[in-house]
Amino acid sequence: MPAPLEAQILEIAQNARAASLALATVPTDAKNAALHELARLLETHSDALLAANARDLAAATENGLTHAQIDRLTLTTDRLAKLAQSVREVAALPDPVGELLDETTRPNGLHLRRVRVPIGVIAIVYEARPNVTIDCAILCLKSGNAAILRGGKECFHTNTAFAALITRALATSGLPPAAAQLIPTTDRSALTHLLRLDALVHCIIPRGGESLIRFVSENSTIPVIKHYNGICFVTIDQAANLDMAEQIIVNAKTSRPGVCNAAEQLLVHRAIAETFLPRAAQALIKAANVELRCDPASAAILASANIPHTAATEADYRTEFLAQTLAIRIVDSLEDAIATINRDSSGHTETIVTADKAAAEKFLAAVDSAAVLWNASTRFSDGYEFGLGAEIGISTDRLHARGPMGLRELCTYKWIGTGTGQIRD
Amino acid sequence: MPAPLEAQILEIAQNARAASLALATVPTDAKNAALHELARLLETHSDALLAANARDLAAATENGLTHAQIDRLTLTTDRLAKLAQSVREVAALPDPVGELLDETTRPNGLHLRRVRVPIGVIAIVYEARPNVTIDCAILCLKSGNAAILRGGKECFHTNTAFAALITRALATSGLPPAAAQLIPTTDRSALTHLLRLDALVHCIIPRGGESLIRFVSENSTIPVIKHYNGICFVTIDQAANLDMAEQIIVNAKTSRPGVCNAAEQLLVHRAIAETFLPRAAQALIKAANVELRCDPASAAILASANIPHTAATEADYRTEFLAQTLAIRIVDSLEDAIATINRDSSGHTETIVTADKAAAEKFLAAVDSAAVLWNASTRFSDGYEFGLGAEIGISTDRLHARGPMGLRELCTYKWIGTGTGQIRD
Fold first, then answer.
1. Which residues are paired to A372 by β-bridges?
2. Which of A23, A155, B244, B252 has an alpha carbon within 20 to 30 A of A324's alpha carbon?
């Protein structure tokens, strides 16, 4: 007989599977009605949500979380209003389910279509930030997937309050309440049980730190779409417009250093390093007092110009700083830059600044990352900026979805064949 | 210090990764030249291949393999000629690499394209049938992926001989020889080491029995695309043309019972069961002496008609017989059929026979399988019949590829953005 917790997780997964089969053929209007109802509930139940959040914040203070961590946990009336707005925006997006991907008629007359359908049951495992509960639930609902949500313990009361409103919005709109379920415990073994239910759960998306992602990836028999870190490179080619190059590295590094599409690594072609590096360094220091961690060649240039910098360690070249820190290297050639990126980057997003079209095309073809950009900031690499309308994360995996994941990437497809009695020889 | 075998597997993976980066931007002509050279070598080196195969066959006889197993292992001059022909057919297929999936220009002027690119390094783990070594190598090569091949011990000498020719064809054509490598040992721990190299290997495709697939899936930190079994259902609706229904169930069950798209399960609507079942049963017995395993309702009908049958067990309803055996159930309604399939099938391929368009459309929408067919045999569900030109297998997973996998399904995509100096607010 399974232990009570194991049985509870199994029941959640079974209910999710049943809900997903119903949800797969629900009309768009019914899904949108549930989303609008949820948006309304978020506004009309703000007192209850803020009270639940206050319990999490009290525990956070008691447990000595940092000011930044507590800020991320905190709900406000303003944040709730923005969250309700984001729910309405997802309702306004086109429904990906039922889209025709391609069709063909075979020589024997069999007519074949590939049609976008929901994946089925998606489990999302995340940490901190209570808005993730709503974000994931609404994106899964709109794409016709049943969601199993496993939030972090720091947000448990807030997540529980959100989940109650989601359940209510689903029920009010005539949709299966099990279409979005929060795991009602923060016990780690609940996660371990969940990760083995590959007959019922079709995909796991871990969103959080590297150790969470690694735990999920090593313990899951369910396919995982990993959202690892972004060690994003900006490459300044010898043929770069240096004004543009300066603006791009300053924007890529300093505009929001804590996100995965911020630049962490700068490669500068040797031919323009003496001209470019001092001005770029000064601009980075002026913009955000960026700490520059330099290889010996770039250090020598900055030293001659009396610009503050430190010596990079080997580890710095493969680090996601998530801070106003930048590792800098001089490269001898475009090929050197490409090889360096393909060895040291996390495959998230890289950009090259150059006026040389042939160099750019070589870079765009040879760099093996989810997003490769030419004369644009790495900061554009996200679902909203790429026009997906919404984003559940940025996949650093290659299978199924690569880079920003929107509603379409939460779907799979099926083959639909229509015949007139065809049999095979 | 890693053990020698572990170090050897690591080196194979590192060489594969380096080869994949080179292969990703190789022109189509160069890949096709290597394929044509391989086809030529298969023909000119048939003596060496048959000699290697003879060693495997001698061991197979000594180890008491069945006649059918030995037949599957056996190479002949004719089979080699067909293999060479299949290599030339893959050379003639369009190159999926570089295909434009979609493009858009954002309001800020950033031009975005999604372009098909190789996945990178693909490991394929398979059993028996030596032609799989060639099939997998050529499909990976054409799609720009480096392949790591791990064959079964029964074919070790044949696989080694094939691998030598593949290496030679690559080198002769100026491509990296590490683009396709056979693991040169059948030691099980080599596989265990390989399955942990997620930093170098991007995808594992296990092709073989359920225990192999489960072993890979449970031990791999690399994403797995599973090719599980096919428990395919044929549903005869109350509005079926009974002549067509009889032809389809006979074809789906008997034309090649050992393959995954053969029918294993028959559902018959109660309203036509008394008319349809006796004639279908007689046709199945006449065609291939099919053993009919019946639920009580279908058994009663066949008993009245004096048609041989046996009682089905619960397990029969979820069994891939891969033999001239069919489980039969009566269903009360279309909804009953859909629920039965979504509970008991393996999600591979299901078909409905009906003249009722509304019933068919409901079935096609609600049945949650990779391929759903209307008035056609389940036997059409493969890469050649679906027009993919070639097939590395049939995925029963939902992520990345669902159903038949051809060259496109061996690719991922990347985002390519072209700007004029865009920075983000």
1. A350, B416
2. A155
